[in-house]
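To: structure subgroup
Subject: Chain for Friday's discussion

All,

I'm putting the inputs and outputs inline so they're searchable in the archive.
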Amino acid sequence: MNTVVSTIVIAGSLLLMLASLIVAIRNRPMGMVLLVGFALLEVAVLVQLGFVIAAVAGGEGPAEKVTLWGYLAGEVVIPPAGVFLALAERSRWGSAILVVAGFAIAVMTGRLLQIWQGVA
């Protein structure tokens, strides 16, 4: 697993979480900046998925692969689902959904690093 890409995913998701929190506190719906940001976050998550697939195909990775694939599948689904729900709820709560989505991606990526290194 590429730690540079993982660091980019974590930093980007925390930055988007903070931006979404500011938008929610200002009582505004999600705007184009957050939409584009979460689209870029999804691209970064897919790049991370590609690195993991390549590494596992090369024989690397943890012994327990089911948990790894579960976290990766969940991580791929969260940004589009969060944006869909935020677009459906055009109030401050739509932005609050994106706060949770950004935090979840950061935590799941950190957990993926732990699983990959065999720490947990």
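Points worth raising on Friday:
Helices lie at 3-25, 32-57, 65-88, 92-117.
The chain has four helices and no strands.

D.
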